[in-house]
Amino acid sequence: MESFSNYKENLRLGFPSDDACSLQQLASGSTTLDLWADWQFVQNEIHHTSNPYGFFLERTPVGAGTITGTVYHQNHPIQTFVFTQSGQCVLQRLETPKHVHPARIVNGSINLKTGEIKFSWYGKPQKAYFVVSYEYSLECQP
Predict the structure, then answer these.
(1) What residues contact residue 17 under an 8 Å CB cut-off, 6+ apart?
(2) CATH code, domain with 89
(3) End-to-end C-alpha distance for the chain, whole angstroms
(4) How far out from the chain centre does Cα 8 lie?
């Protein structure tokens, strides 16, 4: 275990221009010391897509167990989804008597590194859009 004085000597203060990871404060060597939050929350990221079978989140890598969203058709929410810590997609249909959508998502998957979300549908999905909230890491990725 390194002492505090080692951390103090290796800690870079500020945002040096030669630091490729300028979003965080780093300690040199095998130990990192981050003075800032490692994770950032994204709320209500909207994905209007011509491909209702999948899309990519804008920020990556994504935190496991932090992804939640709603699927809309013609401005009506038709389904919610949550990706659990283990990556399982939990789905809930949202329907009103005035708006019943014939298609629904039956399964989903997430690639945390790339932010790719894929869905399998029952029935033919019509134009849909997605509103997603999640956390992503601010740490530099190799």
Answers:
(1) none
(2) 2.60.40
(3) 25
(4) 33
Confidence check: pLDDT of 86 > 90: yes
Distance of alpha carbon 25 from the chain centroid: 23
**SS3 annotation, 45-94:** EEEECCCCCEEECCCCCECCCCEEEEEEECCEEEEEEEECCCCCEEEEEC
- Alpha-carbon gap, residue 91 to 69, rounded angstroms: 10
C-alpha torsion sign, points 104, 90, 45, 49: negative
Count CB atoms within 10 A of the CB of residue 26: 20
Same domain, 60 and 82: yes
pLDDT range class, residue 140, cuts 50, 70, 90: low
Among 44, 127, 115, which residue's Cα sits nearest to residue 83? 115
Q: Tell me: do 59 and 128 sit in the same domain.
A: yes
